[in-house]
Amino acid sequence: MRVAPWLCVTWLVTGPVQAGIPNPLPVQMRQYTAELDQLEKTFFFYRDKGEQFGEAFWQASKRVAKRNSPDIIAAVMLRARKWTDEEGLIFVPLVSLLPRRPTLAILHAYEHSSRESDRVWANEFMIEFEADDTKESTQRYSR
User: Fold this and answer.
1) Per-residue confidence at 143, pLDDT binned at 50, 70, 90?
2) Is the pTM for the entire model greater than 0.90?
3) Average of pLDDT values for 124-141?
4) Residue among 50, 55, 42 at smallest CA distance from 91
5) For residues 110 and 123, what is the distance between their CA atoms, to the nearest angstrom?
6) Is the pLDDT of residue 25 over 60?
7) Rounded distance, CA 87 to CA 90, Å?
8) What phi-psi label fits residue 68: left (phi over 0), alpha (psi between -120 and 50 degrees) or beta?
9) What are the backbone angles phi and psi of residue 99, rounded to the nearest 5°?
10) Cβ burial, residue 138 (10 Å; 0-12/13-18/19+)
11) CB of 22 closer than 8 Å to CB of 57
């Protein structure tokens, strides 16, 4: 019986979480945010060299994907709320290299979000999964 009040308080603090959408702990979100910050820096470093989606960036994305679970998508979607253009496409390699089945389940859940940016970016990532260049690179760097 002691569990019921705790569950009610937890629900009130965190709010209702849509089924399938990850709800990482604050410490995990800070870690994910730091990973995304570093990945962005890497992207811009290689972009300035004319190699924005080259070998080095895919390798950096692979390292981030290996260190984290698909729950990192929650941090990507949180970041998406400030994007005004196609900035989120820099995370296509990362999202593509996460374990496929749970990643797709999370993206499908985000497609039903009440937040428009979540729906748009979930759809965009799934479209990118089907692009020939993404498929080729994903297969190459998944090994």
Assistant:
1) confident
2) no
3) 95
4) 42
5) 9
6) yes
7) 6
8) beta
9) -55, 125
10) buried
11) no
pLDDT at residue 87 in the model: 86
Calpha distance 38→93 (Å, rounded):
14
Tracing tokens 């020939």 back to the chain, one arrives at 132
**What pLDDT is attached to residue 2?**
52
Give me 83's structure tokens: 């994007």
> Six-digit token pair at 36?
């995304």
Residues in the chain: 143
Give the closest residue to 125 by CA, choosing from 77, 64, 83, 85: 77
Distance CA 108, CA 60 (A): 26
**Cα 75 from chain centre:** 6
- Give the separation between CA 93 and CA 66, rounded to whole angstroms: 12
**Overall average pLDDT of the 30-50 stretch:** 95
Q: Which residues contact 97 (CB under 8 A, 6 or more apart)?
A: 58, 61, 62, 65, 66, 138, 141, 142
Binned at pLDDT 50, 70 and 90, residue 7 comes out as very low
Question: Could you give the CA distance from residue 97 to residue 103 in angstroms, rounded to a whole number?
Answer: 9
